[in-house]
Amino acid sequence: MKLHFKVFLFFVLITFVVVPQKKITLDKVFSGEFSGQYFRPVKWTESGHTYYKIEDDVDGSVIYKIDVKSGEKEELVKINDLVPEGKKSPLNLSEYKFSPSGTWMLIYTNTKRVWRVNSKGDYWIYNIKSKKLRKLGGDEAAPSTLQFAKIDPTEKFVAYVRENNLYLENLENGDIKPLTKDGSRTIINGTFDWVYEEEFGIRDGFRWSPDGKMIAFWQLDAEGVKDFLMIDNTDSLYSYTIPVQYPKAGETNSACKVGTVDISTGEIVWMNVGDDTRNNYIPRMEWAGESGKLAFQHLNRLQNEMTVYLADPHAGKPVKLYSEKRNEWIDVVNDWMFLKNNRDLFWVSEKEGYRQLYTIDINTGEMKNIINQPFDVIQVAKIDEDNSVVYFYASPENATQKYLYEARLDGSAEPIRITPEKFDGTNSYSISADGLFAYHTVTSINSPPKVALIELPSHNLVKQETTNQQLQEKLWGYGYLYELFTIKTTGGVDVDGWMVKPSGFDPDKKYPVLFYVYNEPASTTVNDRYDGFMGLFHKAIADMGFVVISVDGRGTPAPKGTEWRKSIYQKIGVISSEDQAKALVALLKEYPFLDDTKVGIWGWSGGGSMTLNMLFRYPELYKFGISVAPVTDLRFYDSIYEERYMGLPQQHAEAYKECSPVTYAGNLKGRLFLIHGTGDDNVHFQNSEVLVNKLVAAGKQFRFMAYPNRSHGISEGEGTSLHLFNSIINFLQEELDRK
Question: How far apart are CA 230 and CA 249, in angstroms?
Answer without folding.
Answer: 18
